[in-house]
Each structure stands twice: as structure tokens, then as C-alpha cells.
Amino acid sequence: MISHRDRSAQRISALDERAEALHLKRGMGIADARAMHPSIDIVEADPEADRRLLEGLADWCDRYTPLVALDGADGLYLDVTGCTHLFGGERVMLDDILARFFQQGFDVRAGLAATPGAAWAAARFCGDRIVPSGEEEALLAPLPLAALRIEADIRASLESVGLRTAGAVMAAPRAPLARRFGSTLLLRLDQALGRLDEAVSPRLPVAPLSVERHLAEPVVLTAEIERLVEMLAVTLKVDLERRGEGARMLALLLFRVDGAVSRIAVGTSRPLREPKLIQRLFHERLTALEQDIDAGYGFDLVRLSVLAAAAFDMQQADLTGETEDDGADIALFADRIRARLGDNAVLKAVTVESHLPERAVATIPFSEAPQRTTPPKRSDRKDAPPTTIFPPERPIRLFRSPEPIEVPATEMPEGPPMNFRWRRALYRVARAEGPERIAPEWWQKGEEDAPTRDYFRIEDSDGRRYWLYRQGLYGAGQPSPRWFMHGVFA
Q1: What is the DSSP secondary-structure string of 238-263?
Q2: DSSP assignments along 309-351, one per residue
């Protein structure tokens, strides 16, 4: 038996068939149970472990339908609408589910009906039963009030007036029931009978496109899995071409024969649908996860799903069969690195709307960076004046944080330094250009009183070039300006 704490008392939360044969019931106090049978074994409940187990079973049930939802702490909803014919019919599918659960060591009860409420009642009160559409009322009529999924206090109130079965509630006038017991009772009743729709919310988003293959012999080797990925990608390409899309996020689901499920996802920088390229990405991912994936006795079902898709821009090829998209190879290289090392393994610098150098560029994951899919349009006017504005020259390497330097003297208060000391070394200035004044962003919070910067491009006597700035201005009553090294050109 399994016990849990209810307020200040330990009570039975679950028990097996042998405990039920001893006339023990759920909700009974542990002290009373031990008084009746001192030799019983009692284990403390672990709700978190039970939740993980139920979620693992839900993952495994994904082999029958992607619409799987959790029902409390001990049940699952499977919306198998349109799926039963893939397994030979409703009875064959239900028997297959029960047989596989039994082989895994679980005692499962299942019900199949046209409504979630009727299926719930059939599973919990009638055993393994299939309820034909339209016979929900006949199913519910002899069942106790708990079959309607109503609260315990409502059930107690109904039983106090002599309504002890679902059939008695259905035969009673609706208006008095609603006034006395609330609208929840009639809502649950109408949902079970199909008068009102009841949605089943799946625990995972449903992939817009999926292809799968059931295997007569389970596969174990990574090479076999990669070969299956390429075969599934060929089928997936046809569906993507029909929709005019390419995959941006793909997931590979490996269903093990003993119930475990492995989910492997890869992302792409650009919409992708070429089977060879998809196989390469999963090759990198499987190589990185080789130590974490336990094949056990093998995988008997492999599924490839498109979790996210985007419009696919066709590229015009030249006479050699090559396209003008120079960034495709870089994008594929970045995707393969990310598949092996993670999304943050490859970053891309993008411009940000700020004139402060340290804020003008940010690094983001390569897949999130905007990608140019078509070459820029050229002007048709041959005599059009040039509109290119050359930005100010910036160093090749910009330090994450400006480093302070010592400037002993300058030619003039507002001019460049004659020499400076940086990292304990003295540098003599041969040439200088500037200043380029950059004022603080006064509209940003905390920047109202920030000092002005005057940037100089400096070349020392050995030909090395630096980018440094003076922070602050010379003037009476003002603190002495400070000098900083912000980057190097070469």
C-alpha cells in the first residue's frame, strides 16, 4: 500500500489487489489498517516521482496519437480520432495498448467512447470497454455518481436526497438540479452525453507535419537510425514542397520497445527540406548525445516531425547548377556546430540602435540573427547619385570594457596625447586623427550626467594603431578628464 498525509493523519492513497482482498480501501487511516492487518507493507507516496512516471507513459502513448493529455495523478486522455484505422480498428488498437502496458508491468484499465466523459467512466468503472456512439446514456445510467466526475461534496448532497446513480440524476428535472446543486453537475452530465463539446488539451504542441516508420525488428545502432532519418526526410520533403515551406525546427522521436522515449531536436538557421542536409544535422546531434541515449533492446518506432516551418525561397541556379546564395554554406556549417555543441556555440554580431560603441553591437545565437535570402536590389537609374554614407572607422577589435591608460601630456588641452602608458608599457604617438565626439545617450535612465567622450585614432612609432578616448572636458571647476583604450585596429 501507499500512504499520504491528509491534514494530521496518514491515509491510504493507493493499494494493490491483495490489499483490496483484505477489505482495505482508499482513504482509510493507516492506524486502522495496521490494527486490522499488522503485517501489511506501507510505502510513503512520492508525488513527484509519480508525476514523472505518468509523463513518461504519456510520451510513450504518443506512438498512437499526438493528442495526449494528463488526467489527474493516475490517468491519461488519448484523442484517437482519425487514428484507429492505422492500427486495424478500435478493438485492435485498444488491445495493443493494454498488451504493451501489461508487458511493461502496469495494470491498466482503458475505455473508448465518443466523449471524454464517457471514456473516463468506462475505463474506471467498466474495465476495458468500447462504447458505441449514441450509447453514452446507457453506459452511465447504472454507474455511481463518481462516474460523472463531480466533486465529493456534490455527490454527498445528491445522495442525501436519494439520487445515488447517474441514471437517477438524468431522470430528475434539470431546473431544480441546477438551482440546488449548481451548474457544474449539469455541465459534466452534458459533456459525458455529448451535448456539449469537451476539449482535450494535449501536454505537448502538435507538430504540423510528421512521418514515422514502424519497424518489424528494433534498431540499436546509430548508423541505422541515421539511415532511417534520411528515408523519413525524403517523405517529409514532398509534404514541405506541397506547402511551399522549409523546416526551421525538427524533432526525432525514438520509441524504445520497453516504453522509454528519446526526443532529439535540431534547429536550422534557414528553412530546410533537403534530406541529405537534415541527415547531417541529426548525425551531429546523435554523435553529441551518443553517451546519453540508451537504446536498450532497441527502438521499434522512429518518427520525424517538423515543429516549426517557414516559407521556402527558391534560389535560381546558373548553368553549372549552383545558386547565388553565398550564405547557405555558412548557415549549414553553423547549424551543424550548433547541433553538436548547442545553440550558443555559434553567435553572430548584429547592429543595435545606439551610437555608443559598446552598445552598438550585440551577439545573438546564429539561428535568431536576420538572414538575407535574396540579393539587394540595384537601382535601375544609371545616373542616380550615390547614396552610400560611409560610417566612421571603427577598430577591428573592440574591448568588452574600456581599459584605463595614463596620459602624461598633450599638445593642447583638446588634442591627442603625445604618448601614453597602457598595460605597463609606454607608447609614443607618431600620428593622430580626431577628435570624434560621442555624447552620452541622455534619454536613457542613468545617462543624464554621463561625461562626453572624445575619440582619437592613434598610430604609435611602430605602426600599431589604437582607438582611445578622453572622458570629460577640461574646464574650471570640472574634474580632470580620464583616458581609456577602447580598441585596436590591427
Answers
A1: HHHHHHTEEEEEEEEEEEETTS-EEE
A2: EEEPPP--B-TTS-BS-THHHHHHHHHHHHHHH-GGGSEEEEE
Say if CB 81 and CB 206 are below 8 A apart.
no
Q: What span, in angstroms and rounded, lies between the C-alpha atoms of 37 and 363?
A: 67
Q: Is the pLDDT of residue 347 over 60?
A: yes
Amino acid found at 177:
L
Q: What is the CA radius of gyration of the chain?
A: 35
Q: pTM for the whole thing?
A: 0.72
CA separation, residue 36 to residues 4, 15, 19, 98 (Å): 19, 15, 11, 34
Distances (CA, A) of 164 to 77, 160, 178, 181, 383: 27, 9, 17, 14, 92
Cα 138–chain centre separation: 43
Measure Cα distances from 385 to 134, 226, 277, 376 in Å. 77, 55, 44, 17
CA distances from 415 to 434, 461, 470 (A): 8, 18, 10
Burial-class residue 308 by CB neighbours within 10 Å (0-12, 13-18, 19+): middle
Query: How many angstroms separate the first and last alpha carbons of the chain?
Result: 74
Average pLDDT over every residue of 354-383: 68
In terms of Cβ atoms closer than 10 Å to its own Cβ (0-12, 13-18, 19+), residue 72 is: exposed
Indicate the average pLDDT of the chain.
87
Decide: residue 69, CB within 10 A, 0-12 exposed, 13-18 middle, 19+ buried.
middle
List, for residues 435-486, the tens digit of each pLDDT value. 999 888 888 877 777 888 999 999 999 999 999 999 987 776 677 889 999 9
The predicted-structure confidence for 257-270, as pLDDT tens digits, reads as follows 988 999 999 999 88
- 439 touches 452 (CB < 8 A): yes
Here the cell at position 243 is 506547402
Which triple of cell numbers denotes residue 461? 612609432
Distance, in Å, from the CA atom of 307 to the CA atom of 38, rounded to the nearest integer, reads 54
Q: Are 330 and 346 in contact (CB under 8 A)?
A: no
Instruction: Give SS3 for 130.
Output: strand
Helix axis angle for 183-193 and 116-125, nearest 10°, is 90
User: What's the sign of the alpha-carbon dihedral 339, 344, 349, 353?
Assistant: positive
Q: What is the grid cell recorded at 441?
A: 545617450
φ, ψ at 137 (rounded to 5°)? -65, -40
- Alpha carbons 164 and 410: distance in angstroms, whole number: 98
Instruction: Return the SS3 of 155.
Output: helix
